[in-house]
Amino acid sequence: MVSAKYKEIFMHINSPILLARLAGLTYVILILSGVFGIASVPASLIQWADPAATIANIKNSEALFRLAITGQLICFISFILLPFLLYKLLASVSPTAGFFMLAFSLVSVPVLLVSVVCHVNVLHLIGDSPYLQQFSKEAIQLQVMQSLAISNNCATITNIFAGLWLFPFGYLVIKSGLLPKILGYLLILGCFGYLYEFVAGFILALGTSPWYVGLAGNLGVFAIALWLLVLGVRKQKESYESI
What we know:
Layout: H1 2-13, H2 16-45, H3 51-60, H4 62-90, H5 95-106, H6 109-125, H7 137-164, H8 166-176, H9 181-203, H10 215-230
């Protein structure tokens, strides 16, 4: 009787609807923490042309900067959990595609953590450790901006993997029939958008890509996160085959 109870609990945990909603919740947490910690706060504090103003901004808003770092950690932890939940949900369609989805996503995590360490290093450099008194103000400014630049470069490199993992993810969405196919196509377009941003921005040194390059991918990511969280997946594969 106890065995039957545990079996029932295990089956409930592994139900597609619960997995979908857990994946959706994780995805929403990832998006919100990423927007706050990676995009919004750093953009409001960092002035690349003015190191002194950047340091003053961070000192005056140190609690906010620390919250941003916490947001980054939450985002990256979510990015470790999310692919496993999606793999459990979708990989039966194609274990090979599931493997590449996991591999492309997880390989970027160490690089992302280096980015976090760089931001922690900034807090250390603007602190009051006695040995820092040996450095001039200009030297501290240089090291702070260098740490921020390394963090930025880490984000640039991870654009490759942020794009690549969306291709097998989108493929699995399309083939599974558990979700609308349009979401899968948007994710695949997002893959090429990220790769274009890397090639244009880094390899060809063309600067920042136009906003519309990442539009389809952003729509796909937001849409599938909300769909998984709110609507979950259909039990019958045929439900979305024509969408």
